[in-house]
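Appendix B. Chain record.
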Amino acid sequence: MGYRHFSKLMRMELSILRKKGYSLRGIAGELGVSPASVSRELKRNKMRGGVYKPALAQQKAYMRRRYSKFEGMKIRKDSWLEDHVKKKLQDGATPEEISGRLEYEFGYPVISFKIIYKWVYSVHGYEFAKYLPSKRWKLKRRKGKKAKRALIPNRVWIEERPEIANERKRIGDFEGDTMGKPKHSPHTLVAVADRKSRFLIGRKVSALRRAMRDGFKKIIPPDAYSLTLDNGVENVHYGSLCIPTYFCHPYHSWEKGTIENTFQRLRRWIPKKSRLEDYSQAQVQAIISRMNNTPRKCLGYRTPAEVFKDQYNLTKSHSVALRGTM
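Structure tokens predicted for this chain:
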């Protein structure tokens, strides 16, 4: 029989059954709880002299839970911890990232992310709820004719990508894409993300048709192992990259989930329908650097930059390509 909290109605029934002379086991059977739960309820919430009044018992239980959740929180008891959580939330970190990074730095669990959420939604932390990442938007299917796409020659489909790349066992397997933009805005962001480290490299270009020439060619390390792209018209000239390239199936964007997830995180700083003309190249690189230095749960709360630098032997050409992104 699972444990559940007593409701106001249950407390009224308990009081009536007790006055009728029911035993603890009999009351428990009628309420659908264990005898231990009934005994605990009477012990905790009865008045002086052993009198049990359901209305007063409900008030006592309410106040006990209120103060145990808010006033007695671990965050409230530690001013340093509270200040640390406030600062990290303002910096854009999620409760999971804050919790995981503290455990990584101290070597033991300091506080769980659930407690941080509980604090944020309490009277003490509600002002910082606005810093939490926005909820995922539901994608709406657009009706109408599909745009004709140029045929990409000699495509190699994603199922032929090496297993070592699929399993994220090495640094150097990238996924690339261009970020969505408003209809009448020429500028877009071209970016690649390393599958293992989630390290992001990006560059703003003045037009989608220049994504290959001014974007991918300038940001992909020349000795990368592989690149995964979608079937966008901007990828027609992928052969000029001289890198083994694999393509997702049409309308299967989830097959390159690393870059899709990375763009979703990037939307915290560059919201949808934003015009990239309003962001300088330096501002874009600053945002990318911030993302690369944010602890990630999937990396054991290390940062993408830490994992990338530790496991990838940067050559001089890499240093040029990655300048401003670390």
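Further analysis of this model is presented in Appendix C.
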